[in-house]
Amino acid sequence: MASQGLAERSAFTHVIETATPELAISANDGLTLASLAAAKGKREALAAAIQEKYGVSLPSTPQRVEGNGIAFAWAGPDQWIAMAERKNGRDLEAELKPVVAGLAAVTDQTDARAILRISGPRAREVLAKGVPLDLHPRVFAPGSVAITHASHIGVILWQLDAAPTYELAVFRSFAQSLADWVEESI
Q1: Of 85, 108, 131, which one is at a domain's C-terminal end?
Q2: pLDDT over 60 (residue 160)
Q3: CA nearest to 62, candidates 82, 37, 80
Q4: Which domain holds residue 144?
Q5: Which of 117, 125, 126, 116 is nearest to 165 (CA)?
Q6: 3-state secondary structure of 53
Q7: pTM above 0.85, yes or no
Q8: How large is the average pLDDT for residues 68-76?
Q9: Nearest in space to 176 (alpha carbons), one of 8, 16, 33, 31
């Protein structure tokens, strides 16, 4: 009898992966993600617990920080998306719950959101066709985060480095629409 189990697959089923010196586009499917929302009045205690465990300060403005194999992107007042490589079965929801018990709500986002990576000298040009932000390096630099839209699709956008490399987190059900828009914007 054939297996009835679910098989893991990318939300970007038809992404045209691009890899040229000017532009690279790919799905970043190797992450475990979790949302983190501070309990009322517990933001400072939560920040202290995260600092102690991971060596980073949770951002209170639209920023992305990294430390000890994990990154946190600001996702609104007292809210963050935690992300890490999904190696050796790592599960951020399970990892974070005991760290922030009584301080925050933790919800797995690994299968709820999809991450598209766009990098290279043409990345800003491609994003400018549908993202209503000033992505000039003076304004939006490595570590910057924005909750915005890309051609009417809600995304959380962050910049990883000066190459520039951007990642867009989108709800999984909108992943293919985002990929289609990016392909048309190349």
Answers
A1: 108
A2: yes
A3: 80
A4: 18-28+112-185
A5: 117
A6: helix
A7: yes
A8: 97
A9: 16
